[in-house]
Task: structure prediction
Amino acid sequence: MVSAAFQISLAYYIIAVLDPYIVSWQCLNRPIVVAPLAGLILGDFNTGIIMGAALESVFMGISAIGGSIPADATTSSIIAVAFTILTGANVEAGLALALPIGTVMASLVNLLTPLFASVAAYWEKLALECKPKKFLIQNLLFSCLTSPLINAVILFVAVAYGVEGLSGFLLSLPAWVMTGLGAASGMMLAVGFAILTSMIWNKEVGCFFFLGYVFVKYLALDTLAIAIIGIVIAITMFFGEKRTIDLKNSLTNNTTNQANNEEDFF
Result:
């Protein structure tokens, strides 16, 4: 278990450094990526994919806005997958544990805020000295050796020495508690989609929500079929709107050219 914990922690550290500080994609650290990766390292890729899709649904609508510190989706997803695979627990229990674990991890990282604030004066000094290369290298080293490294150490300890204790604790709980955890995991998926839907909801896209409900409830289509239909609709709408925009731009250019010709004539 220590070897698996080290491999997972190393993979997390590489992603935590590569994604925000080097490539700036901000997508490699999503549950849908890190959960299957953790499952692959632990020898159960299928469970990693299933939990990755479910956890992405939970954390999809959660984002850091202003001073809001959301739950840490990356570390919580890895720990939840590790707990599920290493202890043989059901997926529902692992999903239910992800959100509280992510909240605790986010709180621990938030404790580093005074450290980051304490070196602000030094970064300002380097900026005033106009030394961009020195500023970039030192800032990158500082960033890589603080939050990602601390999280990787915590992740290693949690997987290597905390999973068995958590498993023993859950086994000691009565059956109704585990049933409640399963129900809570199902509700978390619904809440995650509800948060995301509230951000993008308007009268133009609202009809597709009810169309998807009809596909699932009355036509009994599977997820792949609905996804293909959604892709076809999205592509059709994209090219339709593109033609409309191109036509408006063409009319605007023609009007402008006509006005310029009249001005030249007079």
Observations:
- The CA atoms of residues 212 and 230 lie 9 Å apart.
- The two ends are 85 Å apart (CA to CA).
